[in-house]
Here is the input.
Amino acid sequence: MNLEKIMSDLEKKHPGEVEYLQAVREVLESIEEVYNENPQFESAGILERIVEPDRVLTFKVPWVDDNNKVHVNIGYRVQFNGAIGPYKGGLRFHPSVNLSILKFLGFEQIFKNSLTTLPMGGGKGGSDFDPKGKSNGEIMRFCQAFMLELWKIIGPETDVPAGDIGVGGREIGYMYGMYKKLASEHTGVLTGKGRNWGGSILRPEATGFGAVYFAQEMLGTKGLDFKGKTVAISGFGNVAWGAVTKVNELGGKVVTISGPDGYIYDPDGISGRKIDYMLELRASNQDIVKPYSYEFPNAQFHQGKRPWEVKCDVAMPCATQNELGFEDAKKLVENGVMCVAEGANMPSTPEAINLFIEKKVMFAPGKAVNAGGVATSGLEMTQNTMKLSWQAEEVDIRLHQIMKDIHAQCEKHGKQADGYINYVKGANIAGFLKVASAMLDQGVV
Ligand code: NDP
Here is the structure.
């Protein structure tokens, strides 16, 4: 593999798509060795084919606000790779959404879905629509307008979108309602559905729960667990709240959460009533971080800062991409962090990751750590196909087992001679090998 030539060709073809190029480089660097050991990959053009999406749909989403003003957003669906199953991946509604971000997320999703052991291909979609400050009616009209285009290319055996940043149960409900009307069918076309109409129990908290199960496995390799550990978490969205809840259950103490404007440090720990309080604020679309510091006076709000300056044993970035840079990593290492598990997608910059690996800090990437979300979506698809609804215990047992399996795959492919587990390498190689061999079996398509 001529990595630099591949990257420079890609940069020429897709100039300015920074996040996508960053994600591709990270994967190619990790798989270079196994790729070179298997000349059949080269002759089948696996690399050239895997880095380009199968197709990308972009569309206009016109909608009318409460004051009868017309707005136009852009909608996207990136169907990246369908070698091992229907395209699967979330929809993100956020003003920062562009093609580069969705291609990076769709590319990562290929390997993440492969790691789950379930038959799901990789995809991602969304819009530059900003749900913040919008009324319920505006959200509904936007979701309906979005689905008016998207429904043409999705289906329960074709492409099954889910939630992501800015898309939770409410948005999935509005989109599903419109899909059902257009397609005249009740199917598992979206995951993250409500419990009364085909949703899986535990899906909302599955990503955070799964991330903590994965971190537990990481600690377990050193004979450790969460009991008595201090944990720094960023964000307080779908992923972070599940993680905060599970860390508490396993005996750890979460001391931070954050938002785009700063972070909260709560030396007493974030648990119980404090979590309920934040969930109430979140449900009514309100800011969480600042009000928390007014409600619980021992907590301090650090304006414009990130939680990584706090002394902790475990760090779990659960907010967004590139939220943990080199300087943050340096502070974490200086403060003796032992384990960094990414709940978000690509929250650490390449420089931060390299430092963790160089200093032999246990570090695992989002595609392994947060795969519990899409895995539970896969379990929702299975329940929809079987027209059955499993109990929480059954879903939780399966989720826990899947996270253990993902950890075992990372360990198998990432363990170095000195015993250190390079989870980035392990996750990329394990995810890649399964998809690449399916692509080989299926010919050049
Ligand atoms: P949410 O929108 O529910 O939560 C994101 C959280 O991060 C919010 O609390 C948000 O605050 C905060 N936030 C946003 N930008 C920043 C920033 N620059 N600095 C600090 N905090 C910030 O999203 P999710 O929890 O669903 O997703 C989080 C990450 O996890 C994303 O990378 C996503 O792709 C990934 N992921 C999500 C899965 C899921 O099941 N939801 C599955 C797998 C991965 P505020 O609300 O105030 O903006």
